[in-house]
């Protein structure tokens, strides 16, 4: 796709799929001057998933880049890098058999009262095959629905929890294969938090579906069967091909995604190869639903 011409300081090239964009023409190793940062934020709001190829960064540069977008988010259940409490190393060794981390559709930490607005992933070692990340556009998934469906969903509240992956009876607790990443399973993970099923983005004011098979347990006020049927429909709808962008990594690429309007899924397919990514999160706000946003 053509480079967009309404940026003065950066080069913004939408992905061929039409969702997500690559940003070049700048170095992110040093603090960005205000007008450049302003354009990066504008591109992030417009494209939801932005990547910066060929940007080698030290740990402190990654931390400093993150802080230009807000406070660090709170990352529970994974032991961070030593000396860097806000960086998680997503590392999978060539001989590792445990399923790769993040291998199901989700929006990061949606079980929190204030889930992270954004997540940053910096590629250190990328496998020669596989290891892509899939992103789904939850704005478009919502916008394409009928007005009748939108009216129903706009008033619903979904229950989120970390229990499925991180609870005492969760997937990681039951895991039998060795894993390099240090996961902490906890009773704390069984707590639940309600969020509007349709979320109004605080910057763009667009509406997006806000549920995922990893962290959503059900829908308030519905029977178990109704809730399961509705969520099953939403999960297949929101990841239809036309909403999904397959992101291919290269070493030193940094990608910043918006958890308020996207879900993502780490694809595997790289057994026998090392993959190492460094991850930070940007603190977010309590999700606002349609009625609160229009009040
Ligand atoms: C994640 O869910 O944060 C992991 C994404 C990835 O490793 O591709």
Summarize the structure in words.
The chain is of the alpha+beta class and 295 residues long. The chain has one domain: Clavaminate synthase-like (Double-stranded beta-helix, 4-Layer Sandwich). Helices cover 21% and strands 24% of the residues. The strands form four sheets. A seven-stranded mixed β-sheet has the order 1-2-3-13-5-15-4, covered by helices on one side. The protein has a three-stranded antiparallel β-sheet with strand order 12-6-14. A hairpin with a 6-residue loop joins strand 9 and strand 10. The longest helix has 15 residues. It is globular. It starts with 10 loop residues before the first strand and ends with a helix. The mean pLDDT is 97. The site of succinic acid has 10 residues, from strand 5, strand 14 and strand 15. Succinic acid binds next to strand 5, strand 14 and strand 15.
């Amino acid at each position: 796709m053509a480079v967009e011409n309404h940026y003065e300081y950066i080069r913004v090239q939408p992905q061929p799929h039409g969702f997500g964009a690559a940003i070049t023409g700048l170095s992110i190793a040093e603090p960005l001057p205000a007008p450049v940062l302003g354009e990066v934020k504008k591109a992030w709001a417009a494209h939801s998933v932005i990547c910066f190829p060929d940007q080698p960064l030290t740990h402190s540069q990654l931390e400093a880049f993150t802080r230009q977008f807000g406070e660090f988010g709170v990352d529970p259940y994974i032991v961070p890098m030593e000396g860097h409490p806000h960086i998680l190393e997503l590392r999978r060794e060539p001989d590792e058999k445990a399923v790769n981390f993040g291998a199901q559709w989700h929006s990061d930490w949606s079980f929190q009262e204030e889930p992270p607005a954004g997540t940053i992933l910096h590629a250190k070692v990328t496998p020669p095959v596989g290891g892509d990340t899939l992103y789904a556009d939850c704005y478009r998934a919502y916008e394409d629905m009928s007005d009748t469906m939108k009216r129903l969903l706009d008033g619903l509240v979904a229950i989120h929890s970390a229990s499925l992956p991180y609870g005492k009876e969760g997937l990681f607790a039951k895991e039998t294969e060795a894993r390099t990443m240090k996961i902490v399973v906890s009773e704390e993970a069984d707590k639940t938090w309600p969020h509007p099923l349709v979320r109004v983005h605080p910057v763009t004011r667009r509406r997006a579906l806000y549920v995922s098979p990893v962290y959503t347990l059900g829908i308030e006020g519905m029977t178990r069967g109704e809730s399961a049927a509705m969520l099953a429909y939403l999960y297949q709808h929101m990841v239809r091909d036309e909403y999904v962008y397959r992101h291919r990594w290269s070493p030193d690429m940094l990608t910043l995604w918006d958890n308020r309007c996207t879900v993502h899924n780490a694809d595997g397919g790289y057994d026998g190869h090392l993959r190492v990514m460094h991850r930070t999160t940007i603190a977010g706000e309590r999700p606002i639903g349609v009625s609160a946003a229009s009040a």
